[in-house]
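Re: the 452-residue chain
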Amino acid sequence: MNRQELLERVDTIVIIMMENRSFDHLLGTLCQPQFGGRTDIDGVKSLLDPDSANPAGDSTLVFPFITRDGPLTNDLPHERDNVAIQLASSNITGGPTMTGFVKAYEQATGTSGVDEPPPMGLLTPQDLPTTSFLAREYAVCDRWFSPIPASTQPNRLMAVSGFTERDHTLSGLLPNQETLFQWLDAHQVRWRVYSAGLSFFTLMPRMWPELLTDRFRRLPQLSFDFVHEPDATRPNVIVVEPDYDDSPVHLNGHACDNHPPVPMSFGEAFVRQVYEALTSSPDRWRRTVMIVTYDEHGGFYDHVPPLRVPCPPPPGTDYPPFETTGVRVPGIVASPLVQRGVAKHAQLDHTSILALLAERFGQPGESYSAAVAARATAGIASVSAVLDSGPPRSDVPRIPPAAITGSASLKTWAEPVNAMSHCFASAIEQFAEAHGSDALAKYPEIAHWLSP
């Protein structure tokens, strides 16, 4: 879809970014006969393919295997050095072989010869009612990669800025990089964030004043707003956030971001809630593009090598440059502007969303930024490559109303256990200190964490 078509047919872009799952882990089984037989999707066609096997420390080969959704015993390794092990670049070709996922897991957990190690597990549509519905009714992007082979903070910074001042997830507050929100403000584009829990942007001090405004709202408000808000004030760009497992405060008693060890079921219910809110207004839905993807692969296996897309550090930082994208992640575009049940093979990453924003809301020929333009030159397309020309579909597929079941420990707060959760805890404390009663009035739940 070209820029003129975007101007004529797209009013609202909705962005949902979940946590830490790979494409093969969630969607790789769709190409197998018993799970739909999608010949258009590049997934794991055979569980016995020797090219998919990963060697374990006891010299056995571990093949991908079918697993069921449920709480995992632990998180999987996915920092920059872990990902380098997982990619297992060949000494001969220099390219990734994608055979180090078990090795990285065993090194991080101090185990060897684990029966069915979690990185190699593949989920099926049975346990992914919302994801499999969206894949069946809309467009699967089977060449969507995390921008860099690193962890949550660097990839989310790439997603919201097009560059990152960090190459690891650290316990301190995030750098005050410019984000898509400043870009949208400069282009006079209305935006809003709806959150099921505390926002990721709590970690960025420059966003604290915005957190106190009506631009940041609770998730239950989305359904009413999307149906009833006047055109003059409704946002053109909507970011919808899950309740992050790394946050020490949970507004609904449990996380729903799909970050291991959290099961997928709560995230499936969250995405269904968002989809149902957006489709409750068929007229507005006809001009809406909903994008669902994952910040990075979280240590789970994928068989497709990353793309050779260089990513140098921005001025003022000194980490080693990245030479490739990260591992492939799930990407789904749900909209009346895509055909039913298609797979799109355009090379995409999270900066593809920023490129879409520039095409739709920028001036003719304007790039989002020099960094995003450089990635486009290296082969990363805009999400507009996924959208189809022609009139929008008139049907509004409905998700079956069957209950989504899952188990998790309910908690209103939890002690930090890793760098990301320490980052959240520090941000909450400093946000409350900086904004006092205003912060507590908007987010009373953080008082649980602040209480002595």
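The longest strand covers residues 12-18.
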